[in-house]
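Our preliminary data section would be incomplete without showing what the modeling component actually yields. Below, a chain of 162 amino acids is followed by its predicted structure, encoded as tokens that our downstream tools consume directly.
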Amino acid sequence: MPKIKNSNITAAIFTLLFLILLPGISTAESLDDRVNEVAHLLMCPVCQGQSVAESNSNLAQDMRQVIRKQLEEGKSKEEVIAYFVNRYGETILASPPPKGVNWILWLLPGLAIICGGLVIGIYLYKSQQGRSSGDSGKRADNRAADSDYVLKIDEELKKRES
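Predicted structure:
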């Protein structure tokens, strides 16, 4: 039977411990990321225009602890958000959910861009039509006036030459 060195056993034990503890280490990092992700989706109730992740208020710090605790308990991101919506109402959400009257908030920017583009397009089209029909009459009048002027100049020059 071959002899196994102590260093090989020690290396195997450390490798085994590392592999066992690795998911716990990565979970701690991903838990912070998940807490931050949920905190960015919620607005701070006492701060003007700041999310829970950005705010330094005591309430925001407490809310981040509640988020962490609920995520550690195994709740999903949606469940944690639902907890805060039940407690504070939909005004706690950083972006309004696309339902009910809020659909207007989601659709209005796109509709405004489309309508604005149509108005500009129609204005440009009509201004081109007005120029082409109005300019042709003006150009003809200008040409006739120019030709009359040129004829008078020619007559004056002929008179002076003779």
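The CA atoms of residues 41 and 132 lie 55 Å apart. Helices lie at 6-41, 58-72, 77-88, 102-161. Preliminary results of this kind motivate Aim 1 of the renewal.
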